[in-house]
């Protein structure tokens, strides 16, 4: 009797060990998925300290459809053309920490406008209120000047008319201006890896006055970099930015 109980115990222990091994290897294989965007949870903040993020939107704009000089795959259908966004809860004291901060770009001599327009706080869809970068993959990088916990990034590529889809939108944060230390990719819709950051799993989206909201969940970083590679609105792969807002709190 004693022997059979011992045998049974050995069998149970063996089964538990094998199950644990399988779980371990399963979780390992899921972590090597290429370029999966990070969506960390907000830690150490109680519900009572959270308030809805107040995003100041530009005026609604004319919607243009259909037009497409380049085909769009993997398009998000709910592009919030006329409905308000679900409120995003952020910690009290969260504000736009990108406003007026320095911006540098892969294109030092934009075709239209100036790089500083990315963080100048102006986002109405009028002429002379945007920067147009040369064709192909280009980036803008915002230096927040110190490390922040980032809860939201809102991107307006175009507020003159709604509808265009920009390609290879990749949003990254890092601790250094060369994007080597603690590099994290928060958003990537580059479906063919032409930008070289891995195959993006996020969807293409249409530009509207609501902007594109990305939720980094409190990621700590000093630098925010955004890539794009033209839009479907013209055949010249031109890149545009009206405004980028980064909402956060000092990390200290
Ligand atoms: Ca602006
Ligand atoms: Ca691509």
Structure keywords:
8-stranded antiparallel β-sheet; 252 residues; 1 helix; Jelly Rolls; binds calcium ion
Short characterization:
This protein is of the alpha+beta class.
Overview of this structure, please?
With 252 residues, the protein is of the alpha+beta class. It folds into 2 domains: 1-32; 47-250, Jelly Rolls (Sandwich), CATH 2.60.120.260. Helix content is 12%, strand content 27%. The chain has one helix at residues 2-31; strands spanning 50-52, 89-91, 95-96, 103-105, 131-133, 138-156, 170-174, 184-188, 212-214, 219-228, 239-241, 243-250. The strands form 3 sheets. Strands 3, 4, 6, 7, 8, 9, 10 and 12 form an 8-stranded antiparallel beta sheet that branches. The chain has a two-stranded antiparallel sheet with strand order 1-2. It is globular and about 45 Å long. The relative contact order is 0.24.
């Amino acid at each position: 009797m004693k022997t059979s109980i011992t045998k049974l115990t050995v069998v149970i222990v063996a089964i538990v060990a094998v199950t644990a091994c399988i779980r371990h290897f399963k979780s390992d294989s899921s972590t090597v998925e290429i370029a999966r965007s990070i969506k960390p949870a907000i830690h150490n903040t109680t519900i009572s300290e959270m308030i809805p993020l107040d995003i100041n939107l530009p005026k609604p704009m004319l919607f243009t459809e259909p037009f497409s000089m380049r085909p769009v795959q993997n398009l998000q259908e709910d592009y919030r053309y006329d409905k308000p966004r679900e409120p995003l809860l952020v910690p009290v004291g969260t504000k736009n920490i990108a406003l007026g901060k320095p911006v540098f770009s892969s294109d030092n001599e934009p075709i239209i406008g100036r790089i500083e327009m990315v963080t100048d706080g102006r986002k109405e869809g009028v002429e002379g209120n945007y920067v147009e970068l040369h064709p192909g993959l280009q980036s803008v990088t915002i230096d927040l000047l110190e490390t922040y916990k980032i809860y939201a990034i809102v991107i307006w590529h175009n507020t003159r008319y709604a509808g265009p889809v920009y390609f290879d939108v990749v949003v990254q944060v890092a601790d250094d201006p060369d994007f080597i230390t603690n590099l994290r990719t928060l958003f990537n819709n580059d479906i063919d890896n032409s930008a070289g950051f891995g195959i993006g799993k996020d969807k293409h989206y249409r530009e509207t006055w609501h902007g594109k909201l990305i939720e980094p969940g409190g990621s700590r970083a000093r630098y925010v970099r955004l890539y794009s590679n033209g839009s479907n609105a013209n055949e010249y792969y031109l890149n545009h930015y009206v405004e980028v807002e980064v909402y956060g709190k000092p990390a200290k």
